[in-house]
Amino acid sequence: MHRILAELTAVGLVRSTAQRRYACGSKLYALGLAAPGPVLNADRIRHEAQRLSGICGDTVYVGVRHADGVRYVTRTSGTYPLRAYAIDPGDILPLSNTYCGLAILGTLPAAEQERELGQWRRRRSPEWVATSSAKHEAMMRRALADVAELGYAAGPNHVVPELSGLSLPVPVHDAAGAALAAVSISAVHSRLSPERIRGILPSMRETAGRLAESIALP
Q1: Who's near 72: CB < 8 A, 6+ residues apart?
Q2: What is the per-residue DSSP string for 178-202?
Q3: Domains located in the chain, CATH noted
Q4: For residue 51, what pLDDT band results from cuts at 50, 70 and 90?
Q5: What span, in angstroms and rounded, lies between the C-alpha atoms of 144 and 96?
Q6: Any idea of the CA torsion for 148, 149, 150, 151, to the nearest 10 degrees?
Q7: In the predicted model, is pLDDT for residue 172 greater than 90?
């Protein structure tokens, strides 16, 4: 066993720690990032996102799971003049930092959710000074529970202050049943009241189904 660990350490797949333990090395992390992700029909994805923006009038995002985060593949705009451009296409962010990420995280096993929330506590941004960490974490946990119970997450101030969001998983899953993608709408608070969310959900679910046809397992 020690010889195998020494060989793995030599090529960067494993590293030794100060506590004389072993952890994943940088080469193993890079190998994970290079693993095949979902195969995307980018033009079709943008078309479906723009269609939803046309219906709701707001900013629509589509993100796919990327290692322990979410990579945004498109962003489209509606006719409402105040646009929620918090994320750019191509950005890769932690699952707990975005509405699409929360929709994906809500489909992962409880242990993975707890690990991500632990990381979120350590990197919580100073911009959240007006909201206690306990209150913020309670909102996050409610969002994850809503994904499991209702099939979507919605609410204000989950990921960025003064921004509301509505997100749900795209029905494309890995072997463990976790979602590989999500679609979200971001807007100012007044645009995503509970009544309006109920009105938008049918179109959003239809869009998620259409997006599933454009996202395939490798």
Answers
A1: 61, 62, 63, 87, 88, 89, 90, 91, 92, 93, 98, 100
A2: -BSEEEEEEE-GGGS-HHHHHHHHH
A3: 1-34 (no CATH), 42-213 (3.30.450.40)
A4: very high
A5: 10
A6: 20
A7: yes
